[in-house]
């Protein structure tokens, strides 16, 4: 690892030489959390995002993890989804199916994707209902602070504009406090219709990791992580602060290049 840094506010930064090194360490991090959750609760409830994250978690499908992880105890969710058919190239479900689910033996009935046959509003409502049932049966744990679902791990990517899941800068959904899953029909990044976990759900997880590579995201990483003036626009990645959980940023050197005070050795 190039650098590991615990910020005073509890956030941890793990910065790697390149995407390959990041990938290896991300796989180990996920496998360790899977093991500890299964030991403690008997299951592992993990929410994934789309985008570059899925390629970056690819080493989890390889040795030793393909044999050592207790895949039968995994329950899969999506922190956000595009409201398109599951077979569509824009579908986060399809991305995960092709890049991950097709390579490891996860129980089919443990994979909870959205209903792609209904409107975005209905899909968000249905997905929240599914999550409520699984909180009731304790497949997903519950936050003692606010009754929100407490996922064992939520994995997020971040766009160059600082969006996470489908929470975009200055969008009204950033203020959603009641719903667990909501929808948007005006995503600035296509496709426009999406469902997304809300900030209260993300911030109630036991563990959240934000995984970011590439220089095009370095400015957003700086704005999300560094202490900057009070006039900062609402940047979703900056608003990820688990109340009673751990947040780790996985970054490559390019993505981390504008963080203040980070000095890299040659
Ligand atoms: O649209 C989305 O973008 C973000 C970031 O994607 P990336 O390819 O820049 O890593 C992703 O995390 C989110 O799930 C997806 O819907």
TrEMBL record:
CDD domains: 6PGL (cd01400)
Gene3D superfamilies linked: 3.40.50.1360
Domain of life: Eukaryota
Enzyme class: hydrolase
Swiss-Prot/TrEMBL catalytic activity: 6-phospho-D-glucono-1,5-lactone + H2O = 6-phospho-D-gluconate + H(+)
Pathway named in the protein's UniProt entry: Carbohydrate degradation; pentose phosphate pathway
EC number: 3.1.1.31
Domain called Glucosamine/galactosamine-6-phosphate isomerase: residue spans: 18-249
PANTHER family: 6-PHOSPHOGLUCONOLACTONASE, 6-PHOSPHOGLUCONOLACTONASE 1-RELATED
Entry's family note: Belongs to the glucosamine/galactosamine-6-phosphate isomerase family. 6-phosphogluconolactonase subfamily.
Protein name listed in UniProt: Probable 6-phosphogluconolactonase
Organism in which the protein naturally occurs: Rehmannia glutinosa (Chinese foxglove)
